[in-house]
Amino acid sequence: MTAAMTTELFRAVDEYIVSTLINEDDVLRQTQIDAKAAGLPAISVSAAQGKLLQLFVQMLAARRVLEVGTLAGYSAIWMARALPADGSLFTIEFDPRHAEVARQNVNRAGLSARVNQCVGDARDILPQLHAENAGPFDLVFIDADKKSTPIYFEWALKLSRPGSIIIVDNVIRSGRVADAASRDADVQGIQEFNRMVGGSGSVSATAIQTVGAKGYDGFALVRVCG
């Protein structure tokens, strides 16, 4: 099987999963359409991944969620929909243009009361949230620039509690994460994150390889123990 055939197969199976198991409604589809029309990069989670995030919010009975990397708000909408009426999701986006697209999408989804958008560098905003006692968060989803993942994870721990879950996306890097000689800054960021997690006595974690419409990658699942 060629690489092209493999990619086509992954995409076809993802489409099958979405059509049979996942209720991606018009609001969610329009969010992706608007992102493309605005020229945003096609790097948001897939529908299957968005539903997985929603299920995590539901399984945790989460009331407070933190997201690093808003993009067009697609994953934020999936998660915010699973929150109770008095729940809240804080989402951080570096690019003001992306944040404006997300704001419009969140408003159309009727979730502006639950979603708090923070625009700027997460390396500045996360310490502010900590200083303002915005946490603890029940679930943290990190999906931003990979080279800064260790910094984001360090603050995620400070903004969590025992039992909180931290999910970090794109940690396999098409398999390049296993290349100890890689000079790619994003790969190195994920490798440093893995060393931090592996050397910590306060968390329990794993990483799962995935294939799908987004290609070959994966995510890390971290539970804060104490």
Layout of strands and helices, then pairs:
Layout: H1 3-21, H2 26-37, H3 47-60, E1 64-68, H4 74-80, E2 88-93, H5 96-108, E3 115-119, H6 122-131, E4 139-142, H7 149-158, E5 165-169, H8 185-198, E6 203-210, E7 217-224
Parallel strand pairs: 1-2, 1-4, 2-3, 4-5
Antiparallel strand pairs: 5-7, 6-7
Helix pairs in contact: 2-5, 3-4, 6-7
CATH class: Alpha Beta
Task: Give the spatial strand order of the biggest sheet.
Answer: 3-2-1-4-5-7-6
Order of helices and strands: HHHEHEHEHEHEHEE
Q: Largest beta sheet, briefly?
A: 7 strands, mixed
Number of helices: 8
Structural class: alpha/beta
CATH fold assignment: Rossmann fold
Let me know the number of strands.
7
Q: What general form does the structure show? A: globular
Low-confidence stretches: none
The overall pLDDT average reads 96
Taking all Cα atoms into account, the compactness measure Rg is: 17 Å
Tally the structural domains: 1
Proportion of beta-strand residues: 15-25%
Spatial gap, N to C terminus: 46 Å
**From the coordinates shown, what is the CATH architecture?**
3-Layer(aba) Sandwich
Instruction: Report the helical percentage.
Output: 40-55%
CATH superfamily: Vaccinia Virus protein VP39
Essential attributes:
alpha/beta, single chain, 226 residues, globular, Rossmann fold, 44% helix, 8 helices
